[in-house]
Amino acid sequence: MLIEYIEACRVDVRLDDSPHTPLQGAWVWLDGTGAAESARLSPGVTLVLSSLVLFEVKHFLCDFVLQTAYLYRNKGIYGHRAGFIHAGLHAGGSLPAILLLSHDSTLILGILIAELLIHYHVDWLKLHIDKRYRLGINQSLYWAIFGADQLLHQLTYIGILAVLAGAARL
Fold first, then answer.
1. pLDDT of 31-56, one tens digit each?
2. Which residues have CB under 8 Å from 81's CB, separation 6+?
3. Which of 86, 160, 156 is nearest to 124 (CA)?
4. CB-CB neighbours of 28 under 10 Å
5. Whole-model pTM over 0.70
6. SS in 3 state form for 15-39?
7. What is the rounded CA–CA span in Å between residue 68 and residue 81?
């Protein structure tokens, strides 16, 4: 049903020779012809991109808006409940993005558990490295480790989307 809804909402782009068509150059670049048909995304690609947007919004909310000082201070202590709470928020927050592509409860549960464990360990490792090397925000290594942490989270979402798209045969 969601695919039909997205299909119905798709905007039909018509390009003409008018210099006021703002994206004409982009469409020509995509397929070499500038045909309006090239501007359309398949329903599967639309679902995957929509899911990715939901993952990104969730990540921002869980890592930067909902993260408390308690969670941040303690998620670097291996086994501390703060790390599990934080990772659990991430896993639970991923549910809307996952449900766009699957309703298979076994697959969903497996993905949620995997995300919780991956997120927990990536965050723990980042804070462990920060503490071990006494890194602070004025050191370039701190920012490299912070960036690697964020990259690993983003790659996790790409991996989840690959599993879901493969299961849905998109």
1. 455 555 556 889 999 999 999 999 99
2. 74
3. 86
4. 14
5. yes
6. CCCCCCCCCHHHHHHHHCCCCHHHH
7. 13
Residue 13 has pLDDT above 50, yes or no: no
The residue type at 161: L
Residue type present at position 146:
F
Using 50, 70 and 90 to split pLDDT, how confident is the model at 4? low
Query: How far is it, in rounded angstroms, from Cα 123 to Cα 30?
Result: 38
Q: Which residues contact 82 (CB under 8 A, 6 or more apart)?
A: 70, 71, 73, 74, 75
Residue identified by tokens 């809804």 is 5
CA torsion angle for 43, 44, 48, 51 (degrees, to 10)? Answer: 50
Contact in structure between 90 and 59 (CB atoms under 8 Å): yes
Q: Which amino acid is at 105?
A: S
Selection from 2-11, 39-48, 113-122 with the highest mean pLDDT: 113-122
